[in-house]
Amino acid sequence: MPGLFDEFRLKGVTLRNRIAVSPMCQYSAIDGMPTDWHFVHLGARAVGGAGLVCVEATGVTPAGRISPGCTGIWSDAHGHAFARITKFVKGQGAVPGIQLAHAGRKASAQRPWEGDAHIPPEQGGWEILGPSAVAFGGNLPIVPRAMTKADIHATSVAFADAAERALEAGFEWLELHFAHGYLAHSFFSPLSNVRTDEYGGSMVNRARFLTETLAAVRKVWPDHLPLTARLSVEDYAPGGVTLDDSIALAKLLKAGGLDMIDVSMGFNVPDVSGIPWAPGFLAPASERLRREAGIPTSVGWLILEAQQADDIVRREQADFVMLAREMLRDPNWPYHAALALSRDNPQSLLPVQYARVARR
Ligand SMILES: Cc1cc2nc3c(=O)[nH]c(=O)nc-3n(C[C@H](O)[C@H](O)[C@H](O)COP(=O)(O)O)c2cc1C
Predict the structure, then answer these.
(1) Which of 19, 21, 24 to mutate to test the pocket of ligand 1 (most atoms within 8 A of CB)?
(2) Measured from the CB, is residue 262 less than 6 Å from ligand 1?
(3) pTM of the predicted model, to two decimals?
């Protein structure tokens, strides 16, 4: 049974271990362009020994950004700006990935440290789109404009164009953000999609924007590079997405050429009370989806300790773990995990410049 420090191969790409840096918005882009902050943030975690370093939710259109500080990849110039980062990440032995996103009805929001609320039009906010004219609520109260079929089609095309730019920029791993209440998840969840056309109603109809977007991306993203999607496998809200729904969706996406599911949860409605917060609480859901849909998975949420991460991999609950906040606390988490698990040669997780002198 492979463990945390065994390689993971998917299509033509091999991760040096089963530790990934989960996508994390930094709200530090300028007009969608990644900045030196992104170079250092992502570069430091590649230096720290992770197998996969995934860039944050990156807007496929300007209106698809969560906040004015979010990265985007809607022009070739944006793609070129990422190339410096992918080159450095690869040079450190990590695989560079990017998460492509459209924020839907949660777009046009302030940076979290500026309030995290919708930005009204008179303060520079932009038009918000969604499957239906149903607001998220809470601090994101603006009612989205229900997308026309032309909007829906154009957005799938924007994902495909973004994928082409990501490839050109040197990314070797592509994740479609179909989670966290953003546009794709809001199409799939009956809580936010009340359409009566072929994009609403039945499970297959609610999945249609996702399957069409996948099909568009699959045409341009090469077969030898992994194509994954992040799903919120549970809404944890009455009438919302359940794990059974997500397993059915994963089967559809797999049939459409998806290589892996990144298992996440929630955030399509505010003030949810039923999330069973505990270390590694999503691992059982990942295990079930992995087994029943027959597709590799990664999983995140409150994976804090090396032993816990190793157990998740060894028990085949997921093929690898996605770490977010722990990676912020400690960019060298992989090295410290290797020490904690008494692995031989932990200094191999450090860059050559550090290894000889920094090991303990
Ligand atoms: C600062 C921050 C930004 C995040 N941005 C994203 C994002 O861009 N895309 C995404 O799918 N998840 C995002 N997340 C969620 C994380 O990827 C991760 O799934 C979540 O934090 C749970 O993992 P953890 O318990 O290891 O932090 C973000 C989390 C944090 C803390």
Answers:
(1) 24
(2) no
(3) 0.98
**Cα-based angle 4, 332, 321 (whole degrees, multiple of 5):** 30
Is 1 inside a domain boundary?
no
Over residues 144-163, the mean pLDDT reads 98
Residue 326 lies in a domain: yes
Rounded distance, CA 246 to CA 244, Å?
5
Bridge partners (DSSP) listed for residue 30: 33
Look up the domain containing 343 and give its range: 8-358
Domain count for the chain, please give it: 1
CB 232 within 8 A of CB 183: no
Helices 76-91 and 36-47: crossing angle in degrees, nearest 10, is: 30
Buried b (16+ CB within 10 A) or exposed e, 197-231: eebbeeeebbbbbbbbbbebbbeebeeebbbbbbb
Phi, psi of 101 (to 5 degrees): -145, 155
| Structural domain includes residue 208 | yes
Domain holding 180: CATH number? Answer: 3.20.20.70
Q: How many Å lie between the centroid of ligand 1 and the Cα of residue 299?
A: 12
Q: Closest Cα to residue 250, out of 267, 264, 233?
A: 233
Summarize pLDDT for 17-69 with one digit per residue, the tens.
999 999 999 999 999 999 999 999 999 999 999 999 999 999 999 999 999 99
Residue 78 lies in a domain: yes
Q: Is 16 in the pocket of ligand 1 (CB under 6 A)?
A: no
Residue 177, ligand 1, Cβ within 6 A: yes
HEC letters along 140-163: ECCCCEECCHHHHHHHHHHHHHHH
When pLDDT is cut at 50, 70 and 90, the band that residue 360 belongs to is low
Rounded mean pLDDT of 205-233?
A: 98
